[in-house]
Amino acid sequence: MSKQRPLEGIRVISQAIVWAGPAASIVLGELGADCIEIESIQHLTRTRTSMRHPTPEIMQGSFGTAYVNRDSSEGFWNRQSNFNYAKRSHRSVTLNLDSERGRELFYELAKVSDIFIENNAAGVVGKLGIDYETLSAINPRLIMARFPAFGTTGPYRDFKGFAPTMEAVGGHTALRGYRDSDPSMTPGLSHGDPNAGVHVAFAVQAALIARERTGRGQLIDLSHAEAAVHHMAYFFMDYSMNRRVHGHPGNRHPSKAPSGVFPCARAEDDEDERWIAIAIDTDEQFATLCEQMGRPELAQDERFAEVPARHAHQDELEPIIAEWTRELDQRELTDRLQAVGVPAMLVARQDELLLDPHLEERGFWVEVTHPEAGTHRYPARIARFERVPIENTTPAPTLGQHNHEILVDLLRVSEQEYGQLVEDEQIGTVYLDTAT
Amino acid sequence: MDGGALDGVRVLDLTQGVAGPYATKLFSDYGADVIKIERPGGGDITRRIGPFLDDAPHTDAGGLFLDLNTGKRSVTLNLGVESGQQILRRLAAKTEIVFESFRPGTLAGFGLDGATLREVNPAATLISISNFGQDGPYRDLLADDFLLYAAGGVLAKTAAPGREPLRIALYAPLFLVGGMAAAMSIGAYLGARRNEEGERVDFSIMEALATSMDRGSQHLVGLQYSGSYQMTPESIFARASALPGGAYGGVYPCREGYINIIVYAYWWDRFCRMIGRPELIDDPAYTTRLTDPEFGPEIDELFYPWLMERTNREVMLEGQAAGIPVGALNTMDSVFTDPQLRDREYIVTLDHPVAGELEYPGPPFRMSDTPGKLRRAPLLGEHTVAVLSELGYTPEEMVILRQRDVI
Description:
The complex is a heterodimer of chains A (436) and B (407). The longest helix of chain A has 23 residues, at 192-214. Chain A has 18 helices and 12 strands. In chain A, helix 1 (20-30) crosses helix 8. Chain A has 436 residues and is α/β, with parallel strands linked by helices. Chain B has 407 residues and is α/β, with parallel strands linked by helices. Chain B is elongated, with a radius of gyration of 26 Å. In chain B, strands 3-2-1-4-5-6 form a 6-stranded parallel sheet. Chain B has a 3-stranded antiparallel sheet with strand order 7-8-9.
């Protein structure tokens, strides 16, 4: 028997949208599940686009950075990088869930699926009649994961949450920040999104295992904010134990010193600054760093010799290091310091990752040809599986690409009805002009 | 329905630090039996990291350790000697998944490389978590979570314009990585059962951060699609025009505390209602300039006075009532009193023989039938005797092992 991917034969239907949803999708797709994205031509899949007719002006802004050549001609929603990255190996079907027949078809699909994941706003599935109570009555073996911003219960349940919102509520924003400024200078982050998504991917697999024992599915509820609070565990526990509230650390560490980001030399055509991150673990590493700087005496300087003193005097130490690094190339300096056992790492720029030799050798990239977006490099897999490789090479679907396969072949809708649904603009592959 | 989802799944956990232990914590909290192997005398490095009650260090009362290792069983084992390695192999023979986070090559030195594991237990899956992966030119570089964050290309994005890149909260990237590792590992385990052959997973923290941290993958692909970055310090930080159709947003001070807000141009009516200025909804002095990136200060003039009359919680409630994503910046004290977290009973109290009763972050997701359950973290070596008895060692044999510094 040939080897199978872990989730082959498991069917996942999803409305896994925006940022957290696709982070769950990519895991399940890589693991080999039959993933079907439930889309619609009446309502825009926000992962593909939030606008039906973006103007050229809008495409010139940050909105357009996700689209091939910033081109908004028809079908642009099939040429969007976020969707095309995360929904590889997925199939796409469009349904009109506002119609009775559309809902019926969704129920048919739920009957033959194992997992349904959705991160719509909390009230949506109830309104559409596709909540867990309804679906589990139709298919008691169905596992459903709901992950709206704040979870499905509680006073904030219907709050709008974007990544920085959740970050703020989770306590993360307040724990980042430059030492010399207030939170208004703290740039936003979105790591709560992938965090929510990967937890959902873990949770539904755990539910598959539980189902072997119980014969039933169950409902999973995840709040992005809660899942992200955990990342502050060190600070959470300090409050739990000592009622201590931490302020902005900048790039400093509770005990390592020095720890920070230092400027490096810029080439003439460099638009941006170049930086190197250094985080000293031991006195020995500090002494080596001082040697490299040509300042061996600093290792004996009473301000810096012992760890607590060094930690207390970082304001004096950092400028000394910066003065030295400023003249040096970030890559050469990284190699040089690593070679003598000093932890240092250049701050990589995104475009350089595309050509990074380490990632190249690791087989991190794979070329995928998408019928409308073209050929590009994509991260091949999240982790490398040796026995049954999980490189994700099947391009993401275009809108409604698998309508016929799913409706006619899988759900046994008649060819006649299928044709009617298309003619009536209930399903299709092009967003209605009025789609919102 | 009682019991955890992963009841009956056995995990042999050789990891330490944050990423590996968070991954195995997820297995533990959702019902797996996780046997944690620790070095005699010291144990996991997080036992030394703290924080500590009243800043008094104690091997069994480090806050990060207590949180990361809920429900696991601790066995102290000296992996540097043949007798210890024998015990390790006997444990590996009776497990489903082995996790390790040693520097690449170390595990083989402890007598349990992939080939040996296959011999003692062909069905067992091995998950190896390392900074850069098990091979490649960076394999042996020194790095902590901060440096890995730098290597993953994300640190470059998170700066205020004109300033140095700014790190994310301590260890936060490693928690994300642990979650990713758990999601892939449970998949590997499912695959191993299906194929009746243990999988080998090579998990690189740098790769994980490059793909996932702050939409890394999407940006790398998007860069190829359009030639431009989706996120730059300017775009993240911009008060206006960063988002489709223009938007105003960021962190703002209130009378007490701060909020984070995003207002798209097409929510101008909501914004006006929120600040009690409905007459501005159709005012062309504003409506004609909403997508103008230079327009921020005029909106500030409307916004700040309103903010200064309210606490951040009040602003959040009023903003959300108007349909705008507003989040009050919680500091750890207000996290502990946050109505949403408390209503959902997210914060959990656990008792511990050394650390006493403390509050902990709860399980990260809820399962209706097989809920996650937090059980306290183990004392160092607390379960050595029990686990070795399960293997068939007698008390006399265990005394000998202890005397010879094997356990």
